[in-house]
Design a protein that fits this description.
This protein is mainly alpha-helical. The radius of gyration is 14 Å and the shape is elongated. The two termini are 21 Å apart.
Length: 81
């Protein structure tokens, strides 16, 4: 099982020009970032997400969506290996 990594140096934001083996590492990174973000929403059930207001909630959900899209693209790239 992979070691839990909460933050890592940022990698490329595009899947262009990366090798399938690099894509696996970047995919793990994006999934950990997405997991950490989603845990901050509901992980400890403290109601924080509801209290931040609709504009910030919208922005946070866009970040989650972007991370999920990056992960899907990286999976496609990594699957080519």
């Amino acid at each position: 099982m992979a070691e839990r990594i909460m933050a890592r140096a940022s990698g490329p934001t595009s899947t262009d020009g990366i090798t399938p083996s690099d894509a696996w590492d970047l995919l793990e990174n994006r999934l950990e970032q997405l997991n950490a973000l989603l845990l901050s929403f509901y992980g400890n059930m403290n109601g924080w997400f509801e209290e931040v207001g609709p504009d910030r909630r919208d922005r946070l959900l866009w970040i989650a969506s972007d991370l999920a899209q990056d992960a899907a693209a990286l999976f496609q790239r990594a699957a080519k290996s």
